[in-house]
Design a protein that fits this description.
66% helix, alpha/beta, 620 residues, 7-stranded mixed sheet, Growth Hormone, Chain: A, 3 domains, Glycerol-3-phosphate (1)-acyltransferase
Length: 620
């Protein structure tokens, strides 16, 4: 099923449109206010600068003050009820905004801006915590991609609509007011169709102290190192995006020589690119939470950020070009392509990280972890503003600031990937399996999402663990022959994936016993473990007799068993038939078939061998 089918499902569509309309209204109001203050109130340049610089600070302040409390609310109470209260709050805020627009009361408009920041703060933890409750595991990446795409387009359209309506001579304030109140009312009406999302921690004791709760939420966010580094990656995305977007007005005016329509064009390209990248994540990841795309995204941000500087970094000799004139100008296609690809690789970067946080965080803590993420996001956004302002004061031009951010991205990515080698491990796995094979998976949903489970599979090639690793949604500990475990380059992947090396009793009894102990410990911890009971690669394409080691594992730790079969790998360069020869073709078709869960009592070596033979059929 395509991810777009979710837009026809009640469990997703009302929430999608509710959050998109909220993002639209935030930006329609903010840009309408800026247009009113900057162009229609006759204020001097100093006063306009004061208001326009104060506005972002007021909007971001609630994220620091109230994110932790919002996370508690989203855990303790039913989420859709909170969403409806938040949307009613938005209607009230937009009514106040209408008064401010009509009376040109800037102080009131700044209060409303703070209230809209509070609105976004309350909605933020729910926005991403509700998805794992509403979506199936295989829909999580696609759902996040749709939400990110919808948010980016809603932000863009809201910015354009708010600015355009406020500039209507004589009727701007009325038009902007009708728009924002109307959208808020529609958002509330749609929110009433969102299905219930039960509280994930109803017993949680609510704390009204924002300081102690903020510290507690940040500590909770830091508890899982891998999740915390994913949060840092998301926050870095906001830093990078804030630096980029903040420089675009001066970049389009001085470097590109464009008028306001060119600024709209470059914002549109960046937003469309992000939307495209977000949507492509599901296809590229095979509907799994594939953090191997994160290094791809980081690479693209640097490459095309540097190329954006190289494409144009002087003062344009021509000024005030319309977007049509600019688009037809010599060499300007490169600037437009760079901006689009920066957006696209941003999608590759941030969507898997959000899905990873959602998949790896316990449900009872997810809203608070998202709240912690929002606090760190807000901090990085403020740092981005200071970064851009500081470099501007040092005399750097917008293209030079783009270059600095792109180069800094290398250091940040290296830091995160060094702390969490799983990102690079998944990247290597994703590249290898998607370059060499086209894999069809049948029945992956039959593997339990939680709790101990023993997976058994036939063993055809050296690539078997990588293919399984790349196409099973749940993290799996693989038991593999120690000589395969020690293959150069792949050893890094296997060690990072916590694979368990094993040897024959005659080869190394100590390694064998250590493997059994590690398997038992992993199952005791509720992990999934995969073994290849044949004890080695097939030498003739047929399935060899399953050894009794699987029975020994189940005797020590009776757990559910899931038989699986790989098809289509016999004859590949990684099998015994053509070991270490050049591949006959790339993107060969491979199949993985997963059977139903079996009880440990019905899982003798002979029974499992017979079942795997049936699953594999005639296709080796």
């Amino acid at each position: 099923m395509s991810q777009f089918a979710l837009l026809g499902r009640r469990r997703f569509a009302p929430f999608f449109w509710t959050q998109a309309l909220g993002a639209f209204n935030d930006n329609a109001f903010r840009n309408a206010m800026v247009m009113l203050v900057a162009f229609q109130m006759g204020l001097d340049e100093h006063t306009v600068g004061l208001y326009t610089n104060l506005a972002p600070a007021l909007f971001i302040l609630p994220f620091f003050l109230f994110s932790a409390m919002a996370g508690q609310l989203a855990e303790k109470y039913e989420k859709t009820r909170i969403i409806r209260y938040v949307k009613l709050f938005e209607i009230g805020a937009m009514a106040l905004a209408a008064i401010g627009f009509y009376t040109h009361h800037t102080s009131l408009l700044l209060v409303v801006l703070f209230l809209m920041g509070l609105h976004s703060t309350a909605f933020g933890p729910i926005k991403y915590a509700i998805l794992p409750q509403a979506l199936k595991p295989e829909e999580l990446v696609g759902g996040n991609g749709l939400v990110e795409m919808g948010t980016q387009l809603a932000i863009l359209i809201g910015m354009i609509a708010g600015s355009a309506l406020m500039l209507i001579v004589g009727y701007g304030p009325i038009a902007a007011s009708l728009l924002t109140i109307g959208v808020a009312a529609i958002g509330y009406t749609i929110s009433r169709a969102i299905p219930p999302a039960p509280a994930t921690a109803p017993e949680l004791k609510f704390s009204w102290n924002p300081w102690t709760e903020t510290a507690r939420v940040l500590k909770l966010t830091h508890a899982d190192r891998a999740v915390f580094n994913a949060v840092l990656g998301i926050s870095w995305f906001w830093f990078f995006g804030t630096v980029l977007v903040a420089q675009l007005p001066n970049y389009t005016h001085y470097t590109l020589g464009g008028d306001g329509s060119v600024n709209t064009l470059v914002l549109t390209l960046f937003s469309l690119g992000t939307g495209i990248g977000s949507l492509l994540c599901e296809r590229l990841s095979g509907k799994r939470v594939e953090i191997g795309l994160v290094p791809v995204g980081a690479f693209g941000l640097t490459v095309f950020g540097v190329d954006l500087y190289l494409a144009r970094h002087g003062i344009s000799p021509i000024q005030n070009q319309s977007w049509q004139v600019f688009a037809g100008g010599a060499g300007n296609w490169r600037v437009m392509l760079d901006l689009t690809l920066i957006g696209m690789f941003s999608g590759f970067y941030v969507v898997p990280l959000f899905a990873y946080v959602q998949a790896r965080t316990p449900r009872a803590q997810l809203s608070r972890v998202i709240a912690g993420n929002n606090i760190i996001n807000a901090l990085l956004i403020c740092m981005a503003a200071g970064f851009g302002l500081g470099l501007s004061l040092l005399g750097l031009s917008p293209p030079q600031i783009f270059l600095a951010a792109a180069l800094l991205n290398i250091a940040v990515a290296a830091y995160i990937f060094t702390l969490v080698p799983e990102f690079i491990m998944r990247f290597i796995t994703w590249v290898l399996t998607n370059t060499l094979y086209r894999t069809r998976v049948d029945g992956a949903e039959k593997i339990p999402e939680e709790g101990p489970v023993l997976l058994v599979c036939n063993h055809i090639s050296f690539m078997d663990p990588l293919i399984l690793m790349g196409h099973l949604r749940r993290p799996v500990r693989f038991v593999m022959y120690y000589k395969i475990f020690n293959i150069p380059v792949l050893r890094f992947v296997f060690r990072t994936a916590k694979a368990i090396p094993i040897a024959g009793h005659k080869e190394d009894p100590a390694v064998l016993e250590a493997a059994y102990a590690a398997i038992d410990a992993a199952l005791a911890d509720g992990e999934a473990v995969c073994i290849f009971p044949e004890g080695g690669l097939t030498r003739d394409g047929d399935i060899a007799a399953f050894r009794p080691g699987v029975e020994k594992v189940l005797a020590r730790r009776p757990v559910p068993v899931v038989p699986m079969a790989l098809r289509g790998l016999w004859g590949s360069m990684w099998s015994r038939r053509r070991a270490m020869r050049l591949p006959r073709r790339f993107r060969a078709r491979v199949e993985l078939v997963v059977d139903n869960v079996r009880s440990p009592e019905a899982s003798s070596a002979a029974e499992l061998e017979a079942r795997v033979r049936v699953l594999r059929g005639d296709m080796a």
